[in-house]
Amino acid sequence: RLIRLGKRSGLVKARLAGARAATSRTITILDSHIEVQHGWLEPLMNRIRQDSHHVVMPIIDGMDGSTFEASKYGKIEVLGFLWSMVEHGIKTQKIHEDQRSSKHTDPEPSPTMAGGLFSIDRKDFYELGSYDEEMRIWGGENLEISFRLWTCGGNIIIHPCSIVYHIFRSKAGTGSK
Fold it and tell me: Is 130 left (phi over 0), alpha (psi -120 to 50) or beta?
């Protein structure tokens, strides 16, 4: 279902309009500049079914914005943040690697989440407070909701059995590196 807002309202308000219109038990937020792979959604839904307090993200791999082919740049398995308050891909921590029985199929905890690539239980999304409608700084919504998840008992995980390709911004604004 396509929902059109009457005017340009910003990213957060657009995502919230979509979330309000959704009728399922879960909400999945996806940026418009991604390509999903066959079977990408099932692992996310299964993890939420196991525990509704999980916010689950796919592995985010890079895609060239000019050719729409997989890129050697941009693969993100775990997200953290820089002190400039921008999300940032980080290496998997050894302590977490050692706890996983399979590096290929076990979900990985992540300190922060991508604001536009995740699935969450609808009830938990709204009990958490959803997005802050007044958040107007690009990249701030995902950190703000991540911090609320930490303090409210939720957890963020990345599921390696789910992969999406994402066109990352470049300094030239072309979408390729």
Answer: left
Q: Which helix (H) or strand (E) holds 142?
A: helix 140-151
* pLDDT tens-digit profile, the chain (177 residues): 788 899 998 888 899 999 999 999 999 999 888 889 899 999 999 999 999 999 999 988 888 888 888 877 666 667 666 555 555 565 556 666 666 666 667 788 888 888 788 999 999 999 998 988 887 776 778 888 888 888 888 889 989 899 898 887 665 444 444
Gyration radius from the chain CA atoms = 16
SS3 content of the chain, % helix, strand, coil (to 5): 25, 25, 45
Q: How far is CA 153 from CA 24, 52, 100, 149, in A?
A: 23, 11, 21, 6
Give Cα 175 to chain centroid, integer Å: 18
- Number of alpha carbons in the 13 Å side-chain half-sphere of residue 37: 18
Q: What is the pTM of this model?
A: 0.81
Q: Sort residue 129 into left (φ over 0), alpha (ψ -120 to 50) or beta.
A: left
Q: What is the DSSP string of 16-74?
A: HHHHHH--SSEEEEE-SSEEE-TT-HHHHHHHHHH-TTEEEEEEEEEB-TTT-SB-SS-
